[in-house]
Design a protein that fits this description.
mainly alpha, 2 domains, 6 helices, 68% helix
Length: 157
């Protein structure tokens, strides 16, 4: 599940905390069991979230990276559109943006960053995403795709 969406790291941390608390003796076996059952229920809900939001796992992950606290319904739609549009544009083979090993060359890195800026600039809601927030979201998004490329993922063949 973490491999599908790296924004789900809190689930792993919570699971590890229950194990650590049990091992240290601060939780009984019954308390640990109940905590793990709650974790399993939360994980199940999280796994269904992308489908409920009518998004792919990749779109959901990008949406999670782009969203900020307290979005209105309209802002949420704009962020969702930004995530979908960005993935479509970057992974469209005819655009030749996320080519194999793009992350190793400065010029192709800048091309990817520029495309991210353009698309997010068109779709992220203006008043809620000021310059600072916008710049942070561009950086987080670029780092997301860069990380995928380093793992040999996230490029058009």
């Amino acid at each position: 599940m973490l491999a599908q969406n790296k924004t789900r790291g809190s689930f792993l941390a919570n699971f590890q905390q229950v194990i650590d608390d049990y091992n240290s003796g601060s939780l009984s076996i019954e308390e640990a069991y109940e905590a793990l059952i709650r974790q399993a229920e939360a994980l199940n809900e999280e796994q269904q979230r992308a489908a409920k939001n009518e998004m792919t796992e990749a779109e959901q992950e990008l949406f999670d990276l782009l969203k900020k606290e307290k979005l209105t319904k309209e802002e949420e739609k704009s962020v969702k559109l930004a995530a979908q549009t960005l993935l479509e544009k970057l992974f469209d083979a005819k655009n030749k943006i996320l080519i194999q090993e793009w992350h190793k060359e400065k010029t192709t890195q800048e091309k990817v960053r520029w495309e991210i800026q353009q698309i997010l600039g068109q779709h992220l809601p203006e008043p809620g995403y000021n310059r600072l927030v916008f710049s942070q979201k561009v950086d987080v998004t670029f780092q997301h795709f860069y990380g995928l490329a380093q793992m040999g993922l996230g490029f058009v063949a």
